[in-house]
Specification:
By secondary structure, the protein is α/β, with parallel strands linked by helices. It folds into 4 domains: 90 residues; 237 residues, Nucleotidyltransferase, domain 5 (2-Layer Sandwich); 141 residues, HRDC domain (DNA polymerase, domain 1), CATH 1.10.150; 41 residues, no CATH class. It has 24 helices and 12 strands. Strand 3 and strand 4 form a beta hairpin. Helix 10 crosses helix 14 and helix 15 runs antiparallel to helix 17. The radius of gyration is 28 Å and the shape is globular. The two termini are 39 Å apart. Bound molecules: adenosine monophosphate (AMP), manganese (II) ion and zinc ion. The site of manganese (II) ion has 5 residues, from strand 8.
Length: 672
């Protein structure tokens, strides 16, 4: 595909985009020089300044209104109601971006744009029929959905987000050598802090079956493709009973889970995927939530091998949601560790052993969605489909690596079992929890620190009460900016929280109150130093999975590259961007010798589709270099054309200044 910028868009369109971009850059640069805050007020008392500023701000409103006319006819900005205007702007931006994403998707597939249904409709099983939005960023497809009924509403079990100790859900204990008894654990001060693993004794007694420590000389047969394999979707008790009956007849099975943690405080499991010699199975873990305990018959049977990849979370989720425990586990991630593979992700193993190019891009899909789309089903099946085969291959590799001795293989079983011996505990916060957000930010004074702490604790409390994730209510980067800037009014808060999460919108006043109360804290100079120590500690593992990749290895992360205007945060809610600059006018290109060939020119506007195309050809450096050369030429031409058409300054409201300062801050941080 010829995908130079010039090749894709007609030259006159491209030229006009570039001209607009250059004009915009200049405008923003100039508006940075405008006075803000108190200085602005002072200047306004000079009539000449005030008249000019008013005229510009009316111009801006007028121009925006004329854009809205073509976009959302019902939207109209009001002369000087900043808050009202800001909300309209955000909504309009959302709507425009939605359309862009949709159109990109349609161009990709060569289909007509999908008109979303207006209102959610109750579908079978009490679910709403949600509006599905597919968002394509580079090669990555996010499947997000709106109007999903909160499945928690239908859970039979009570969700307890209080700080009370988590009580294991297990009611029956199949495959036991010691009958079920929940044993309490106490700390040194005699406080009850949890319960012992219900299968502790059985775990201690466990040894892998002898045949698991050997391998067939015969090459295992590579499994047929997912499309050539039987598939069963299990969504009620009867089907689950059938499945358990089948599972009790097999020797081994691949297991994986999909979990949702964005619109819930502790999260819940949405799917359980299994693969046996009979094919792939997906259990609807929302519909079967109250029956899934029945899998303990299989999962705690030490003679049936359960194969996971990276089971850390899965083990805890199984306990949390269903009271399920695992005895007889082989974790292919641990096997990759013991084999010293540099990349240990499932995708890497699939490539290595099966020659399959896995696409992990649906990992962050909203797994609450029902019915599942065919892509999501294929994705979920692929996560377990090859596990039994990979396990066989890895067992052979481990024995070979041990020169015929199974000690490495035993090590893998031991490490895997160490994981399945962990127990779930509820996320806990204390008076220092906010410090883990503080790791990478600039030194805070006492007031900023107090704000960080109060906001953090308040957000956590609300998230527990509403059963939402803290990231959904108020993402970490916004919380940090609020604490750092300590805005004095609602406009200041609004400017820092864009796009504005619904929770923030409903609580702007409250947030202002919290921040103002922190300004009462006495500023003392030695304060910052006391917290420097906390910053030097390695970053603590972050509970908010939506703010940090959760895998152990750097190299296992699939980064979503959305270059040019900033990286999209890796999570299902793809509407929120990390606070990166909207326009990279302050960034210079890396001209050093070792710099990778520049794909995206900072001073150059890259339209979404071109950006998308660039991402696809990222593996073709030669082509990229050629494109870059073409672009340098184009930029030069555009600049020459634009220099004859210099834009005048426009009034930037003080709120925009907040935002720009914030952007600069990010760059400073980036450089260090
Ligand atoms: P996987 O085993 O790769 O299919 O991942 C299982 C579940 O882990 C997904 O359904 C997500 O809920 C969650 N997950 C995986 N990677 C991430 C991540 N980087 N951030 C947050 N959640 C994740
Ligand atoms: Mn998994
Ligand atoms: Zn998975």
């Amino acid at each position: 595909m010829q995908s130079t910028a010039a090749g894709f868009l007609p030259p006159e369109v491209m030229a006009s985009i570039q001209k607009g971009f250059v004009t915009m850059n200049k405008t923003i640069k100039l508006s940075n020089n405008l006075p803000v805050g108190g200085a602005y007020k002072q200047c306004s008392s000079v009539t000449d300044f005030d008249v000019v500023a008013q005229r510009f701000s009316h111009n801006v409103v007028f121009q925006l209104n004329s854009i809205f006319m073509t976009e959302l006819a019902s939207y109209k900005l009001k002369g000087d109601d900043f808050e009202y205007n800001m909300e309209r702007l955000v909504d309009a931006n959302d709507s425009i971006l939605d359309r862009v994403y949709n159109n990109i998707d349609c161009v990709n597939k060569g289909v007509e744009p999908n008109r979303p249904t207006d209102n959610a409709v109750i579908g079978p099983g009490g679910y709403y029929r949600p509006k599905i939005t597919k968002i394509q960023v580079g090669d990555t497809t996010f499947t997000a959905a709106r109007n999903i009924t909160r499945p928690q509403l239908f859970f039979k079990d009570q969700i307890d987000n209080t700080s009370a100790v988590w009580v294991p859900k297990i009611k029956e204990k199949p495959n036991n050598t010691k009958p079920l008894a929940l044993e309490r654990i106490y700390d040194e001060d005699g406080r009850h802090i949890g319960f012992e693993h219900p299968y502790r004794i059985e775990l201690d007694q466990f040894t892998p079956r002898p045949e698991w420590l050997t391998y067939d000389n015969e090459e295992p047969a590579m499994p047929p493709a997912v499309t050539e394999t039987n598939f069963t979707f299990v969504s009620d008790e009867k089907q689950l009973d059938e499945l358990v009956k089948h599972l009790l007849t097999v020797e081994e099975l691949g297991v994986d889970l999909e979990h949702h943690s964005y619109r819930s405080y502790q999260g819940f499991t949405c799917l359980v995927q299994l693969t046996t010699t009979a094919g792939d199975f997906i259990i609807d873990a929302i519909a079967c939530r109250e029956y899934l305990y029945k899998l303990n018959e299989v999962f705690t049977n030490p003679n049936i091998l359960k194969i996971f990849h990276g089971s850390d979370c899965d083990i805890l989720w199984l306990q949390k949601d269903f009271g399920l425990y695992v005895l007889g586990i082989f974790d292919t991630y641990r096997a990759a560790q013991v084999l010293n593979f540099s990349i240990k992700s499932l995708a890497a193993l699939l490539k290595r052993y099966c020659g399959v190019d896995a696409d992990k891009t649906h990992q962050m899909a909203d797994w609450r969605l029902r019915p599942l789309t065919p892509e999501l089903i294929t994705y979920a099946r692929t996560d377990t489909h090859f596990l039994p085969y990979i396990c066989k291959k890895m067992r052979a590799d481990l024995i070979r690596a041990g020169n015929g001795d199974p000690h490495l293989l035993e090590k893998v079983f031991k490490r895997s079992q160490e994981v399945s011996g962990r127990t779930y505990t509820k996320p806990a916060v204390d008076q220092n929890s906010h410090l883990k957000l503080y790791q990478n930010s600039r030194p805070f004074n006492a007031q900023q620190m107090e704000a960080l702490k109060r906001l953090y604790l308040w957000r956590d409390e609300e998230a527990r009460r509403m059963d939402e994730s803290t990231s959904y209510l108020l993402p970490n980067h916004m919380l940090l900016s609020l604490a750092e800037v300590l805005p004095r009014d609602t406009q200041g808060v609004t400017a820092l929280c864009q796009p504005m999460p619904p929770f923030v919108r409903q609580n702007v006043e409250k947030i202002c109150q919290i921040l103002m109360s922190c300004r009462q804290v006495h500023l003392d100079d030695g304060f910052g130093a006391r917290f420097t120590a906390a910053r030097l500690e390695p970053p603590a593992p972050e509970y908010a999975v939506h703010d940090l990749p959760h895998e152990e290895d750097e190299d296992d992360r699939v980064d979503v590259a959305l270059n040019g205007n900033g990286a999209l945060h890796r999570r299902m809610d793809c509407y929120y961007q990390v606070s990166l600059p909207d326009i990279k006018i302050f960034v210079m290109e890396d001209k050093s010798e070792n710099a990778p060939p520049s794909v995206f020119m900072p001073y150059y506007f890259v339209p979404p589709f071109v950006r998308h195309s660039n991402y696809r050809i990222i593996a073709q450096p030669a082509l990229l270099r050629r494109n870059a050369e073409v672009r340098v030429q184009e930029v030069q031409e555009a600049l020459t054309a634009a220099s004859s058409n210099v834009a005048g300054p426009s009034a930037t409201p003080p709120q925009a200044q907040y935002r720009q300062n914030n952007n600069k801050k990010w760059h400073n941080k980036k450089k260090t």
